[in-house]
Amino acid sequence: MTLTTQQLQCLYVYCSTIGIDEFDVQTELVDHFTEWIEQRWKDLPDKKFSDIFYMMKESFPEEDLIMIAREKRKAVEKELWNLYKKEFLSFFNVPKISLSVLLFLIFFLYPWSDEMSILTFINPPLQLSVLYMLLYSAIAGKNIIRKNTDDLKQPLLIHQKLSLLQWKAIGGFIAFFLILLFIGFFKEIKLRNDLISTLLKVIIPMYMISTFSITHVFVRVNTLIRNRYPLAFK
Amino acid sequence: MNKSSLYKGLLEPIIIQLLNTNGKMYGYEITQRVKEITAGELLITEGALYPLLHKLEAEGLLEVEIENIGNRIRKYYLLTKNGKKHSSLAIDEMKKLITTLSLFLNPKTV
User: Fold this and answer.
1) Hey, are the CB atoms on A72 and B50 less than 8 Å from each other?
2) Are residues A5 and B71, on separate chains, in Cβ contact within 8 Å?
3) Rg of chain B, C-alpha, whole Å
4) Position A120 pLDDT exceeds 80
5) Domain count within chain B
6) CB crowding A140-155: b at 16 or more within 10 Å, else e
7) Are residues A212 and A132 in contact, defined by beta-carbon separation less than 8 angstroms?
8) Could you give the ipTM of this predicted complex?
């Protein structure tokens, strides 16, 4: 006997009631329960769905199911980290490594005037980074990041973690941007200040490279998720 | 020490070997196949199976294929290239373990 859509829905609701909200975990468990129920139904054809459903709940302790979801969350974090690492490393091909080195050299070797204020020094690269992040997110994000969010039928565990990370990263970039701007507004701080200028010559290109690479990685990871869980999206 | 804790460490090579032999499999199928092969001697619980499958997937040893089966979705697991390499190592390790254990359990025959 095959379960109807309504009965399957009942299994999904059961997963939600015990605290498993993620579509990917629910889907796997619902398939497992369905197989189990259909098998029992073959042996006990006179039983009602509600009876078999009750037997199923008895056979699969809630704690075990919650533990599966908890372990899955850990595994997803690990998977996401591996994806980031892989995509981040693949971003840095030979031309991009050369450009990064060039960027550092420009900041270190260019004869910046000692009287230049910090604000004048940091403003153009920061503006360029933010502009890049906004443009890239607007163009690529329109295609994939927003599409993923809009089209998601059910919450995916990996998607939830990714969204959280994205907000943390964006928040981090904005906070850092504001801190640098705040420092820059102290007009008396000039580039002749050795410690600050050396620090900025390292931090600014690193900030730019991080912005470029992480924006790219977010878009790539969103694409991979879409390809991997096509049925979770409309 | 109960039987399940004895088998715990062997679960990973068992699953990898099963996937190596059968290609792609889904969770329930794995539990039933293990039960069938071992004539009910070894019963894998969902609480042990799924976390391990998810861990292996996160480590890049398994990949997932999603299929529509009637009115529901099924997630199949299969070995990646890396997983296939790992499978031969895991099986060798298991064989070595069995040989070593037999030295203790059956000293005269070894």
Assistant:
1) yes
2) yes
3) 15
4) no
5) 1
6) bbeebbebbeeebebe
7) yes
8) 0.84
